[in-house]
Amino acid sequence: MFNSFGQYFRFTTFGESHGPGIGVVVDGVPAGLPLEVEELTTALLRRRPGQSIYTTSRKEEDSPEILSGWKNGITLGSPLTVWVKNKDVRSSDYDALEKLYRPSHADYTYQQKYGIRDAAGGGRASARETIGRVVAGVVAQKWIQQEYPVNVWGWVSSVGEISLPEDYIPKQWSDIESSPIRCPEAEISRKMEELILSAKEKGDTVGGCISGYIEGVPVGWGEPMYMKIQALLGYALLSIPAVKGIEFGSGFSGSQMKGSQHNDIFYTDDKGKIRTQTNHSGGIQGGITNGEPIVFRIAFKPVSTILSAQETVSLEGEKVEMKAKGRHDPCVLPRAVPIVEAMTWCVLADLRVLASQRFLVEKGNS
Amino acid sequence: MFNSFGQYFRFTTFGESHGPGIGVVVDGVPAGLPLEVEELTTALLRRRPGQSIYTTSRKEEDSPEILSGWKNGITLGSPLTVWVKNKDVRSSDYDALEKLYRPSHADYTYQQKYGIRDAAGGGRASARETIGRVVAGVVAQKWIQQEYPVNVWGWVSSVGEISLPEDYIPKQWSDIESSPIRCPEAEISRKMEELILSAKEKGDTVGGCISGYIEGVPVGWGEPMYMKIQALLGYALLSIPAVKGIEFGSGFSGSQMKGSQHNDIFYTDDKGKIRTQTNHSGGIQGGITNGEPIVFRIAFKPVSTILSAQETVSLEGEKVEMKAKGRHDPCVLPRAVPIVEAMTWCVLADLRVLASQRFLVEKGNS
Amino acid sequence: MFNSFGQYFRFTTFGESHGPGIGVVVDGVPAGLPLEVEELTTALLRRRPGQSIYTTSRKEEDSPEILSGWKNGITLGSPLTVWVKNKDVRSSDYDALEKLYRPSHADYTYQQKYGIRDAAGGGRASARETIGRVVAGVVAQKWIQQEYPVNVWGWVSSVGEISLPEDYIPKQWSDIESSPIRCPEAEISRKMEELILSAKEKGDTVGGCISGYIEGVPVGWGEPMYMKIQALLGYALLSIPAVKGIEFGSGFSGSQMKGSQHNDIFYTDDKGKIRTQTNHSGGIQGGITNGEPIVFRIAFKPVSTILSAQETVSLEGEKVEMKAKGRHDPCVLPRAVPIVEAMTWCVLADLRVLASQRFLVEKGNS
Amino acid sequence: MFNSFGQYFRFTTFGESHGPGIGVVVDGVPAGLPLEVEELTTALLRRRPGQSIYTTSRKEEDSPEILSGWKNGITLGSPLTVWVKNKDVRSSDYDALEKLYRPSHADYTYQQKYGIRDAAGGGRASARETIGRVVAGVVAQKWIQQEYPVNVWGWVSSVGEISLPEDYIPKQWSDIESSPIRCPEAEISRKMEELILSAKEKGDTVGGCISGYIEGVPVGWGEPMYMKIQALLGYALLSIPAVKGIEFGSGFSGSQMKGSQHNDIFYTDDKGKIRTQTNHSGGIQGGITNGEPIVFRIAFKPVSTILSAQETVSLEGEKVEMKAKGRHDPCVLPRAVPIVEAMTWCVLADLRVLASQRFLVEKGNS
User: Fold this and answer.
1) In terms of residue numbers, what domain contains D303?
2) Residue C93, pLDDT score
3) How far apart are CA D222 and CA D216, in angstroms?
4) DSSP string, C170-224
5) Contact (CB<8Å) D357/B353
6) Searching chain D, which residue's CA lies closest to the CA of residue B29?
7) What is the mean pLDDT of chain B?
8) Which residues of C are less than 8 Å from A143 in CB distance?
9) What are C69-86's pLDDT values in tens digits?
10) What distance in Å separates residue C141's CA from the closest CA in chain D?
11) How far is A115 from chain D (nearest CA, A)?
């Protein structure tokens, strides 16, 4: 419940950053879905620490092991469990941190809530938990793509103040992975890289935004009241560590517009399909997909663990100065792209079940 | 499920805009909570249509009737049901709309999803559904305030391009209700009023932002993984019609900052309480409340039903020109404030249950 | 949650026995399902009090009113709400009961749990709450029967010590309704009627069993672990007031058998369908339907409110003698048959959603 | 969801009988609960195969390994994961079974549902899945017993036609474990042992009943409508493989009684506590605990896998004769006792959360 996501396609993550490993149980997976361990490995590589100089230097091979629900390249319909051992654990880096609260980190709230915390690597608060999300996302994606021509893309659209234009869409999807920080415009990417490296050198960190783009979702997904697709995506994406905001379509900018400017005018395209001329709605009307691409943008705060000196308080509330050690990301954005995509796939897998159920008894003009 | 909100404190809304009425069942209400019908009436007055020239002229007295769960001023512990009859129904205004899809409205997606739609008043897609949310919010608020010194405030922080400063907090809470559009700064409020009236005259509509502020929530509410307090609030608030974005604390602006700027430095105040010097985190760290005020901002798109001429397509996909009739809000922001507050209270009521459960077995320093 | 049943096809009941009325919200109903108020009225007639001398003399017309989710004979896909006003309320019958705890009634547990109880008619503990179940059952049945050749039958198989043979199946389904107490064997029915009347004359009550029979459910419904079909039916049927036991197939008798006797031998029938020679499994193997009829039997305790003198304690714990007034059933079995059927339909409607989802990716030999 | 149990204290099991192992994730465990691996080992020993000549000869050490949520003898508040490797796997025993459907086994229904089945050891349908339940039960028990003087006892009350009296309660709880088959009456136990051995010699199996007894639950646990304690226990216990029936208190026998006989008369004991003279209600009134012991009885069908020759059909539906190999229990009852107890603890842990929440605002006489 507290560690599970989804209602029909449901995954549960477990494991602490500096414990034996990280795992996930994915329930609701159909039988007979082809799945290779290599697919999981490849997906995990994209979120892996140590993949470039722009990320933490913690070295984890992140080799997934399938514990259940799978045999000879095929899912069995039983819960699929994947386990990734922690290897490069250096808990000693954290010894000094046990006596104080790192600013803007979950140290204080965990300690207050549980009376206990596993300081090493942040325990559950660590980004290592997201391994489970990425694994679940692979399965969700495979399941959906067997039936629907859906695709999900995420990219880094801003780092600090360096930003792509608000309505930017990549020219080619492959441009995203060409950039070490997953910004599809080479020039902008380079500026972002510089900014990250410059922050890193100062022991500082930097925030930014990720944009998401979902294409191919049929009209009619999402439920009109409390399972609006934007609410479900919002819930999913706001559960990613460091996310502080989300907007759909025109979002905050759209709130400055007039209705006459903002409305997406319908037209019928040359294939006879009803489309809209603009997409301020971000593919969603009344909580339900309208067949246009679903677009959103997510704000990540800068990583709170910085390596320069900071003031804070000890467990006893006394003023102390601290300087973090450990290996941390100067910017999580590049590694967060696959996590954003994975959570999006999981929302879609969950909605897919409802989408096929709430059909009308005698279908009208759809 | 599709029309229910909450897990422990759960409400279910029902009723169509132009059907017999709108209702809500609130489950999980304790026995013995004092509640008067007048309290519901007062709360509904704040979201009522026709309350000022800035809102729709539809006249609904919105007189709540308690159907169950209550006797002689006290709740019984059984489901509390409240029913509000629709009175000022003019379905004829909608006749012309049955043959076409209003731009950026849920007409098209509902028709595609259900093969049927109750065009009059938008059926379920109408804002009248939010009556149920406001009723549930009253109960949630009363329940929480019996034990916790919590308060929730919402105000209009922008209309179109007219905006309060990003980090603005009202000087006095009573200033909010002094403004007909619930903007606590008189000068700014007047500009917003002008903007709304000017849009209204042109048959146009205008969007804006609502800010939310929660004070008094104890440290430790929210669950660290998939029930982070920002994820639950995001889910709740993104389910309000016309909401297109949400941000917590520094939000999108914060994504442009460095970690060294953004981190909220801890200190111990003169009562010995651990506090933070700034509140970029918006009162939340690791998905859990840290005792500082929880702050958020929500973007509303402009109302899609405008009264000026627009192009669109008919049910058959043919290009047509339309001009909406009916009584609509030129700006939903003023009436949306109590809805934002109500959903916030309901999230808190739900979390309250968990908050009291996940305590550690032997409590440490909390 | 506490007053809701079902996950996908979910209904929520509300209302107290001696309050304004009883209602139900059914969520998850598809759009376009034909439904007439008369169908609800007819179904409620079967559970109605005062339908024969074997039931309570409380007179309720039980006229259902549809408050939402329906227009012109068709469901809208939005929550369907049905409301039945209480009419023949005589709370004064209950005045004396407010000061004591009726033996084996929920008086004591409610008082302890809620510190409050609506003594009149037992408040929520009254069988009037089952009106909502019957309404939900009508919708569930209609939805399922639009696609599947499923039928559900319940009948009274024992009253006191008068019992049909354990493996009895009615010769004709219409025989059930021919009996005023819904026992399909005329001779046995008469003996049961005599027993009920004899108990009634003495101010006493009598228990009994209801048998259930579901035909036409396809192979493969039910989930193998924690949504086994027997677990879901058990959960549903044990929630009916006065039910104290349930068994499936051979049930308790089967626990006395050897595996070699109990096993249901497979064979292929002349249409090439795999069947079993016996049905000790009651249509379920490993929690999943095997295509044979699902059979179960439910034990009801005798009604606890008897009209003869009984010893008990007052609210203060002092020994008192009581003699109940009010109008009560000498035997609930006849009126409980439609409730058993309704809950069964609701379980099937819920399972139907999953049944269509958990198919394998490439279907084998099914 | 399909493989999860519980709403607040929730566990999810995973793993196949002849795969790498069996695991469980327990979510909702508080931080700071003392827990030693030895406690898990001891609990698993009670359900372990090969513990006596009355059970399967499959030899599994069932050594539990804690993968997450635990450090140095204490739970962390994060999900607790326990993993037990499968060791004595002899899949070859099952080769012949892949081509046919064992009578009354889940072979046929799984094949039809999933189009695939892991014949070896029955895959998920194997009793090995219950390892996870036993582990969750240990945690649930420890958590509850930290605050409440609750205890749960199960014993074998019948094997085949050999039965303890219906209202039998053990004289001493320790008598249960003194018997190799967990029947607390030495004489009856011996007769049961003989019956099991005699069945085993013939390659046959035998069913029976387990009785359950819960003491110390406070008044007021359970929710009056759809979370009645008997419904929740029924749901939990009917999910155990081979269970075909359950009854509470007087159960099926009680259905033959008159109200005047069956009612449990209240009295005030010498400590001033309100009690009942009899306990036909089995500790439950209106779905809520009344402070008396909760008593129930569960029927298990005989194990379907017998070692003598049986007729059945092949995958193609052709008549074949089969003779099972593999190591199977002649009677599951002795090993099922700890599973019944574990599921009961888990229901209580789940209810405990609600029990503490639904208190009235101002408590009355409790």
Assistant:
1) 4-365
2) 63
3) 14
4) -SSTHHHHHSTT--SSHHHHHHHHHHHHHHHHTT--B-EEEEEEEE-PPTT-SBT
5) yes
6) D358
7) 90
8) 361
9) 999 999 999 999 999 999
10) 20
11) 8
Interchain CB distance below 8 Å, B116 and C76: yes
Interface of C with B (CB under 8 A): 1-4, 7-8, 10, 12-16, 19-21, 23, 25, 27-28, 31-32, 67-69, 71, 74, 76-81, 83, 113-116, 118, 123-124
Residue B158, beta-bridge partner list: B163, B209
Nearest to C360 among A28, A30, A362 (CB): A30
Q: D333-355 and D37-47 helices cross at what angle (nearest 10)?
A: 130
Look up tokens 């696959």; give the residue.
A338
- Give one DSSP letter per residue of C117-138, joined into a string: ---GGGGGGSGGGHHHHHHHHH
Question: What's at D46, amino acid-wise?
Answer: R
The closest alpha carbon to B107, from B327, B314, B325, B333, belongs to B314
- Chain A contacts of D21, Cβ < 8 Å? 67-68
Q: Give the tokens for residue B277.
A: 């010097």
Q: Which residues of A touch C (CB under 8 A)?
A: 8, 28, 30-34, 77-78, 143, 146, 224, 353, 356-362
Name the more confident of B301 and A112. Answer: B301
- Report the pLDDT value the prediction gives residue C96, as an integer from 0 to 100: 72
At residue B366, does pLDDT exceed 70? no
Q: Is D169 left (phi over 0), alpha (psi -120 to 50) or beta?
A: beta
pLDDT band at C364 (very low <50, low <70, confident <90, very high): very low
**Which one of D144, D361, D366 makes the best mutation probe of the B interface by having the most chain B beta carbons within 10 Å?**
D361
Check CB contact under 8 Å for C302 and D259: yes
Whether residue A299 and residue B251 make contact (CB cut-off 8 A), yes or no, is yes
Work out how many domains chain D is built from and give that number. Answer: 1
ipTM metric: 0.95
Rounded to a whole number of angstroms, the distance from the CA of C201 to the nearest CA of chain B is 35
Residue B354: in which H helix or E strand, if any? helix B333-355
pLDDT at A18: 81
Range with the poorest average pLDDT among A65-79, A309-323, B40-54: B40-54
The string of DSSP codes covering A48-99 is -TTSSTTS--------EEEEESEETTEEESSPEEEEEE--S--GGGGGGGGG
Burial class of residue A38, CB neighbours in 10 A (0-12, 13-18, 19+): exposed
pLDDT tens, position by position, A94-129: 667 788 999 999 989 988 888 876 655 557 777 889
Q: If you count residue pairs, one on A and one on D, with CB atoms under 8 Å apart, how many are there?
A: 131
Task: Specify the range with the lowest mean pLDDT, choosing from A64-68, A113-117, A128-132, C28-32.
Answer: A113-117
Question: C363: pLDDT confidence band, cut at 50, 70 and 90?
Answer: very low
Tell me the mean pLDDT in the region D316-336.
88
pLDDT of C89 strictly over 60: yes
Question: What's residue D323's pLDDT?
Answer: 85
Q: Is C163 helix (H, G, I), strand (E, B) or coil?
A: strand
Give me chain C's average pLDDT, please: 90
Confidence of residue A65 (pLDDT cuts 50, 70, 90): very high
Chain C residues in contact with A8 by the CB 8 A cut-off are: 357
Which tens digits make up the pLDDT trace of C126-138? Answer: 788 999 999 999 9
Nearest to A78 by CA among D287, D116, C90, B366: D116
Chains touching D by CB (3 or more pairs below 8 Å): A, B, C
CB contact under 8 A, A31 and C361: yes
For the question of whether the overall pTM of this predicted structure is more than 0.80, the answer is yes
List CB contacts (< 8 A) between D13 and chain C: 225
CATH number, residue A250: 3.60.150.10
Between chains, do B30 and D356 touch, taking CB under 8 Å as contact? no
CB contact under 8 A, B360 and A116: yes
How many Å apart are CA A332 and CA B259, to the nearest integer?
12
